[in-house]
Amino acid sequence: MLEALQFEFMQNALLSGILVAISVGIIGSLIVVNRITFLAGGIAHSSYGGIGLAIYLGIPILFGATVFATITAILIAMITFNNKSRIDAIIGIMWAAGMAIGIVFVDLTPGYNVDLMSYLFGSIIAVSSEDILYMIGLDILVVALVVIFYKEILAVSYDSEFAKLRGISVKFFYTLILILAALCIVAAIRVVGLILVIALLTIPTYLAENFCNKLSSMMILSSLFAAVFMLVGLALSYSYDISSGAAIIIVAIVGLVLGKLLK
What we know:
single chain, mainly alpha, ABC transporter involved in vitamin B12 uptake, BtuC, 0% strand
């Protein structure tokens, strides 16, 4: 594994794993605490529409997925904030619509040669320098917003009624969390794919919450766990020539089981 670090693609893979781990730990904690894992899953699969649209228009795929996922997150926030009784049906519809739009646009693109499997199941060794810049920007944005609005996010996450009484705009922060989740999902798709991205967002947090009683410490520990899962999964992927996304998630599942047993 160490000799492989002389190659640029392995350096990018290593760096991207650490960068994504930071955002995954923070946003994953918010997703789990706010119990919006299903919403994040809807955003993840809907983002395939942005991938297909980007391929059809000939624009950067990461940009297309980001715009589409962000719009989806805003729509989901608007629809579900006051209509939580039908949230499962709404997410199911948007999930299917996004996937269908992506497939249609890919089919309409003549002579495309993009490896779509890397977006479905991830390919951390295919991460480019542009992807690295996106991940750095995402980490800066996520950390800055969470630090600035930590008290408000904490209040909204644990007691939205109390937060509303304190004059906090619950709807704004609910929407903000979903938008940050959308941005994080797009970055993580390059690493583990949209099929496995929800596992990466939730497993480190489920493990971290066994050892933490504060949201801030849960975010930090989740990021550390995610980084370890990334690095070990990358090493296994390189050593045994298996899919990097699947290797990372398997390592995460094993880590979760071991953590539960030890706890």
